[in-house]
Design a protein that fits this description.
Its EC number is 3.1.-.-. This protein is an alpha+beta fold. The protein has helices spanning about 5-15, 25-35, 85-105, 115-120, 125-140; strands spanning about 40, 50-55, 60-65, 110-115, 145, 155. The chain starts with 6 loop residues before the first helix and ends in a 13-residue tail after the last strand.
């Protein structure tokens, strides 16, 4: 199946995709700032260049786009119908890089939190989700990780191996 866009149109479209300061990142940052949390953004000295770094809580946050990070089971993640092998390999490399970065950050003593764009996309679920995110950040007794099992939601707490959040994708 061929692309519906010309190669020039596709090139312009792909070039316009932002890698930082995305709408989901800005939503999370504005909320955390409004709750009094202070943070740094895009810290290059840390593995994976985390989107949000909260040094006081030794916590980093990655705000992941569902397509680019292969959020399985999500309605926003669907491989394109053209150039399937390229996209499959691209997404798999991104997921492997996410897992590697998470392991490196944990080895350095950081708590890692992943936020999927779909979790904050709709206003109806955004407020409750952001409240839970804030509470997990300021509660230093919890341990966080990006779920590598993409069937689970990304903010997961590990208090006595209890899973706090389930997946609620449409």
């Amino acid at each position: 199946m061929s692309d519906v866009m010309t190669s020039e149109q596709r090139s312009r479209c792909m070039a316009s995709i932002k890698g930082k300061d995305t709408k989901p990142e800005m939503i999370v940052r504005k909320y955390l700032f409004s709750r009094g949390l202070r943070f740094r953004v895009q810290v290059r000295k840390l593995p994976g260049n985390p989107d949000i770094v909260l040094p006081k809580y030794k916590t980093v946050i990655f705000v992941n786009g569902c397509f680019w990070h292969g959020h399985e089971g999500c309605r926003y993640f669907r491989l394109p119908k053209s150039n399937i092998e390229f996209w499959k390999e691209k997404i798999e490399r991104n997921v492997a890089r996410d897992v590697r970065n998470e392991a490196e950050l944990k080895a350095l003593g950081w708590r890692v939190v992943g936020v999927w764009e779909c979790e904050i996309k709709t206003v109806a679920q955004r407020e409750e989700y952001l409240k839970r995110l804030y509470n997990r950040i300021v509660n230093p007794t919890q341990s966080y990780h990006i779920e590598t099992d993409m069937d689970n939601q990304s903010i997961a707490a590990e208090p006595e191996s209890e899973q706090i959040y389930g997946n609620n994708h449409s």
